[in-house]
Fold this protein.
Amino acid sequence: MDIDALKAFLAIAETGSFTAAGHRIGRTQGAVSQQIKKLEGQIGRPVFDRGGGAVQLTEEGRRLLGPARDVLNAHGRALSAVSLPTGTTRVALGMAEMFVAPVLDRLLPEVRRLAPATELSLWTEATPQLIAGLRQGSLDLALLAGDAPDMPAAKPLFSRPAVWIGPDQVNLHELETLPVIVWGEGSDYARSVLGALERSGRPYRVAMSTRSFGGMMSAARAGIGLAAGLEANAEPGLRILGEESGLPPIRTLTVSLSRRAEARSKVVRDIEQMILEMFRVQND
């Protein structure tokens, strides 16, 4: 499949809009539409339902989300193996997708200001894959969610309570059986979310499982079900639902920063300090 078409597909799935997707990947709305037509032509089925105003993933589109992200991550890793222009330093940074917007929105301007010749290579993976990337030398730095007992050098960044997130126009929490969207069915994330419901005795059903956090938020915006994330993940079209909505609390999410022991270059250490300082100020 065409890499640019997959980039357009994921951008729409994560933003819920062809226009916003175009801004994200630097293309016009018309160009984004052409990429999706090309992708749908290759698949033979539509990946988005454009009726009713809001852009929603079709069943085929939901099935494509995980594999599309895998392809783009592999593509990024392949590009990372290519030699850089003289004077440019590449730093490979990994994190879960749910941290991309809240972290990169603050980090990238600092990198551009303090280390303009740096090329960031971003991985979006779950913690086990990020730990493997550090060990294998593919990553320099990684934000690790949850316990990381095998990474003793990890430095604590922050702890935040996970929150319930749902569509701002639909009261899904009032349904007798709560529809839930989970990231990575069978993962620690899914067990934490579903465990909170089971301990509270709240009836639920898994309305959708996905390996794409952006896809999960897009599905929540479309009213497919409720999801769990950080407050910063509640973008336009979504709202945070607290205990007053009859929903149980979800466990606190702990995040740490780990640097590969062999990654000792000044620019890697500088970016490590940027991230640590960014969250130190935020936590004060």
